[in-house]
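Let us practice reading a record.
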Amino acid sequence: MSEVGKSKEALEPATEAVTLRRRLADPQTGNPDRYTPHLAESLNNLAALLSEVGKSKEALEPATEAVTLYRRLADPQTGNPDRYTPHLAGSLNNLANRLSEVGKPKEAFQPATEAVTLYRELADPQTGNPDRYTPHLAGSLNNLANRLSEVGKPKEALEPATEAVTLYRELADPQTGNPDRYTPHLAGSLNNLAALLSEVGKPKEALEPATEAVTLYRRLADPQTGNPDRYTPHLAGSLNNLAARLSEVGKSKEALEPATEAVTLYRRLADPQTGDPERFGSPLARAERVVLDLNITHTDEDPDQ
């Protein structure tokens, strides 16, 4: 239900699954050895759904409990670390995101960092399984970069963000990787890197990843060969990002084109009849403001316009 955009409807079965599995894993009346892993999984699922429907505060409790359960299951002394460490890493990423959403970036930094550490071990070419876990490592690096940026450490965030781009570029390579699966992740990580480069005062360096992100999202959202329903919002966001980067290097005239295109796309996405105004109304308003500011800036730069 979540995958087809029905997150609100998905909440009821997800909540019931937690209730049932909690009963099955009860130490007094159930079988905790067998069902605790299932309970942890359903708690992670519920937390993600609560976040999707805008209930980030409610999502914190199941996300935290999932980490607690997976930590016990992955304990080297009493659990099965080979089996459950990957689940622990995933739940730590989930918890970090939930903490960030409720305005606790400092608290989010620790689980985000631990997730990277665990995935790095899991993806180690000598001792782990890089084919399986490199994508997870790349995702956790992006997550850590975001958390570092949130606590005012954009310079430190550059390293994991750059590594994430490198890994996703390998994963999306047409010859050796899986471009259908990982090109969207590469595009997102490029946008992330561009924003961070801008934050640390490197607007010229930010232009290249911002431009590449637009190119990739344009291909992904192509009506003939891509999936416009899924990727048009990402294309609009990346166009806004590119416009901001162009403006920062004094190219407000060139920035108008991607900014105007972003407005056009957001207008369509926020259309009351065919789109989702509740979801895209705010991004549309921000995009329109960007175009207005760019027009003012461009006029100031060239009084004849």
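A brief commentary: The chain has a mean pLDDT of 94.
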